[in-house]
Amino acid sequence: MYAAWQWGKQHRFTLADVGYAIFFFPLIVGGMAISVVASERGEWGLGYLPSQLYEVSPVAAMLVGAQLILVIPCLVAAAILVRRRRPELLLASSLLLIVLFGNVWAAPVALYSYAAWFTNRWRPLALWAAAHSAALAFVYTMWEPFLIIPLGVTFILLPLFFGMWVGTRRQLVENLRERAERLEREQHLRAETAIAAERTRIAREMHDVVAHRVSLMVLHAGGLEVSAPDERTAEIAELIRTTGREALSELREILGVLRNGEAAPTAPQPVLDDVGSLIDAACAAGANVDLTTTGTPRPLNAQVERTAYRVVQEALTNAVKHAPGAEIDVRIDYGRTALTVTVVNGPATVKVANPVPDSGYGLIGLRERLALVGGTFVAGPLADGGWWVRAIIPAAPTETPRPAEEIS
What we know:
By secondary structure, the chain is α+β, with helices and mostly antiparallel strands. The chain has 3 domains: 2-143, no CATH class; 193-260; 272-350 and 359-394, Histidine kinase-like ATPase, C-terminal domain (Heat Shock Protein 90, 2-Layer Sandwich), CATH 3.30.565.10. Helices cover 65% and strands 9% of the residues. The chain is built from 12 helices and 5 strands. A 5-stranded mixed beta sheet has the order 1-2-3-5-4, with helices on one face. Helix 3 packs antiparallel against helix 4, helix 5 runs parallel beside helix 7 and helix 8 packs antiparallel against helix 9. The chain is elongated and about 125 Å long. Residues 1-11 and 399-408 have low confidence and may be disordered.
């Protein structure tokens, strides 16, 4: 049984082929039995061999009859199994059955299979159909002439036309499927082209507007640093110039990604150890920031540390921008299963004539970032006019804990 399965897998016959072989096998056996019985009555057909041998050896006659009735149908059934790969075997078998035995039961599946499964079928199919019709007419003219037309229509013409219809429909469906796939590929290409054009347009607009303005800011800050009347003004001008140059560098990288569609640069990503530089920058801008670390600091997953860094960065930026001169308290708590980041700022103590415009997407981006790591994010105003932000990030320990330290 396993060998038969392996043979079928190698020759790629399907359940439909097996079904056809099982269905037509008893019909072909019945046709062979009728041929042997008719020959015993003295009519035409190669089935006369058993009756001729019976007078010489009854055992030999029985063996020949069994081979005619059983072995030949088994060979035809095997040809049905490989009808898609070797259709000429089944066509030749069905033609020989008609010529030698008057058995027409293999002709329908042979003609239908060739007409349905082969594209270059018109001329060979016409030749095979003509050969089957001629054999049927020749045999049944000597046997039962009145059966020629009904047998020809039932066993040759109907399977032939039905197979041609099935084959034409299959080709049409395949052509439509191929066309749909081609259209889908073209649609993807058009979408990618449109995306690339839009990215180029965005990059051009950012370069013309943002990069130009930032460049002017850096140049003015450099001029102010050189001509500053006091040391404090020079320090602030240097901070503005340095921050502007860093912003221009990052902006150039983003513009390169937008224009060329390349991968983003793989620069080292910020982690919790870089929070100190954020606080130094905020203090240089005039803020008063206290950083407190509680719990047992330990190395965490890079995504967790990067998320915590972005929370502190966004909270400090908002506090410096919307509450200048306010006291800012940053607290990082290393819990057993979570890292909690809390940033609280008081009300503004300095009035700014032209406040920095707000995009309105900072807190939304933080909520989305926390949702990606399975954390929670809360933010809102305080009763005294201040603001607070809290992010709880799931964080399991990854390495040996390092000594705790508290920075204030």
